[in-house]
Amino acid sequence: MLAYVLPLMTERPPSKQPAELARLIQRHAPADGLHATAIPRVLLIRAACPSEPVHALHEPALCIVAQGRKQVMLGEEVFVYGADQCLVVSVDLPVVGQVIEATATAPYLCLRVDLDPGQIGSLMLEAGLEPQGRAPPGPGLSLTPAEPSLLDAATRLVRLLETPRDIPILAPLFIREMLYRLLSGEHSARLRHIALAKDRLDSINRAIAWLKHHYAEPLRIEQLARQAHMSTSALHHHFKSITAMSPLQYQKQLRLQEARRLMLGQALDAASAGHSVGYESPSQFNREYSRLFGAPPARDIARLRGTLAPQPNAST
């Protein structure tokens, strides 16, 4: 049974800041999709209609929704968030994202800032912030209201796209301010553990890094535990608490997402794609692929190609 994490409500009156941030994002992301910007590690996301579920490996990032709503599934948990809320992802997580509220006149608009552990660590030292003694409970993903001070810094950051000459000097300052606001708020424990290399989260990060580079190999839990510097029982417990899945489930998602990419991008057939990511049995590959993506490989790829194909102009 899926566990839903509903949008968090606050007592403060609605802020005008998301509306201003939405106008700026819409101006600099005129078409649907993920848009890189002139500011390093800053991306803008737009969608004019609800989307199909998208499977992806989400890297550490801060996401602030300015308009519309989205849901992210991690294991059996569903996080739903919209304007005035922010999502922080602290480790690489296989998630399923889906825009659930968007129209042509009020598209889904989101600011994403990819997080740099070194920058967070440096800011912690300057601010005199002490490391947390224990890892934060729950998965490596947290959802909270976006405080006005954070929204203000985010708005000023995106506004820099209108004065490119100011970006080299002011963008780093605004991003540092955003990180400082997060470190001072409810995301503090999550962010501090992104920067630290002393606790169990770092051990899980080592296990994740190994899985990302060796997903096609048979999984030997003892070998993975050695990579994480943990016992096998501790690895299982803490890996699942942070990623909401077991190491084997995590590896399976990596394999299936890569196989899907190979079939879609390199036109591999299902048997070749399955074998390239470590499946010895085509029937097992087809079965697990269908369970994750909702259709057998050939049908799923045909549907994706149809979705990605250029659509006729609505006026014709």
TrEMBL record:
Domain HTH araC/xylS-type per the UniProt entry, residue ranges: 205-303
Pfam families reported in the protein's UniProt record: AraC_N (PF06719), HTH_18 (PF12833)
Note the coiled coil stretches, chain numbering. Answer: none
Q: Which SMART domains does the record match to this protein? A: HTH_ARAC (SM00342)
GO terms (molecular function) for this protein are: DNA-binding transcription factor activity; sequence-specific DNA binding
Question: Which superkingdom heads the taxonomic lineage of this protein's source?
Answer: Bacteria
Q: Which UniProt keywords apply?
A: Transcription, Transcription regulation
The name this protein goes by in its record: Transcriptional regulator, AraC family
Which species does the entry assign this protein to? Pseudomyxococcus hansupus
Please name the taxonomic classification of the source: Bacteria, Pseudomonadati, Myxococcota, Myxococcia, Myxococcales
